[in-house]
Structure of Crp/Fnr family transcriptional regulator:
Amino acid sequence: MKSILMKYIAEFTSLSDEQRQEIYGRIETRNYKKGAYLLRQGDMPKIKCYFVLKGCVRQYLIDETGKEVTTNFYIEEQAIPIFTEGNQDVPSKYSLTCLEDSLFVVGDPAVEKEMFTSYSQLETLVRKMMEANLREAQDEFAEFMHSSPEERYKAILRNRPQLIDRVTQHQLASFLGMTPESLSRIKKRMKTDK
């Protein structure tokens, strides 16, 4: 797991090996079991960010009709930012739950601030990672908005194929904006078209 962290620090900074080792020693990692919640809808967020070293996390919300709506999945080497719009007293609009046993780097705001002061390049690293995540999310959203359900499924197969075997069909269908039955029909049609 250390190699994943060191890869990002080396890629986005020019810190020495000694500095990278010191940073690594100060970073908090936590294990969570399958089914554990990182955050529940309606709770006040206590953590600013997670970075997935191992595992799969589902982001979802319960809408006004009581229906579960999957809004994202996070897997290895992805950051899970928790934005509170500058106000820590805003309850979360979604839940984050582990779909597998998982290991995360945990972003503690106080430690992060101290490390940014000691190593200004870390702030640049985090900014670049967040920019990349935002760009990816914007691209996915734009593609999603003008795609048919079948095109959305094909995009998942192309861009995030690892999700197919790691999430349930009803969670994937919800994420793609369709019913599980529609997803089954699309899969069946694609198999027969081959």
